[in-house]
Amino acid sequence: MNSKLKRFGELERLAEGEELVASRRLKECIEDVLTERTKLDQLRDYLEDYRKGDSGATSQQLDPVRWENYRRFLGRLSQTIEAQQKELDQAEARYREEADRWQASHARTETMSRLLKKFEAEQKREIAAREQKEQDDRASRSNES
């Protein structure tokens, strides 16, 4: 029984280690999502501020070259925003995957912990029963003498 208890103790420690690694990865993913979201918000704010700053800019007020540059810049900024949205989407997908991994590793750790406690309690009962039997045997031998 002792070797069984020892094996489950080792398995519990391994599960705890895996859970710790998974929780670190999950934390990194959360940080990545927050970083990507901040970048996207900054780009959107910049686009909005740029449009407000040039709210009077129309094709009639700007010469054709400046108007074309303005349109190209807005187009590139919009493409950059779309690319950043994809980065955020990918970061969120990685977060969901890591969250699932962490939940699975946490469940394994909890299961191992419960099994270890069960085996420890079982071992204590067996030891107590053995000690009681030994005491009973000694008592019956001393009564026989």
Q: Can you put this structure into words, describing what you see?
A:
By secondary structure, the chain is mostly helical. It has one domain: Helix Hairpins, CATH 1.10.287. It has helices spanning 2-53, 64-144. The mean pLDDT is 90.
Topology record:
Layout: H1 2-53, H2 64-144
- CATH first level: Mainly Alpha
- Quickly count the helices: 2
Question: Largest beta sheet, briefly?
Answer: none
* Secondary structure category: mainly alpha
Give me the strand/helix succession: HH
Could you name the CATH topology? Helix Hairpins
Which ranges are low-confidence, i.e. pLDDT below 50, for 5 or more consecutive residues?
none
Please indicate the count of domains.
1
Mean pLDDT: 90
The shape, in one word, is: rod-shaped
In the CATH hierarchy, the architecture is Orthogonal Bundle
The end-to-end distance, rounded to whole angstroms, is 35 Å
- The overall strand count is 0
**Helical proportion, percent range:** over 70%
Label this structure with key terms.
145 residues; mainly alpha; Helix Hairpins; 2 helices
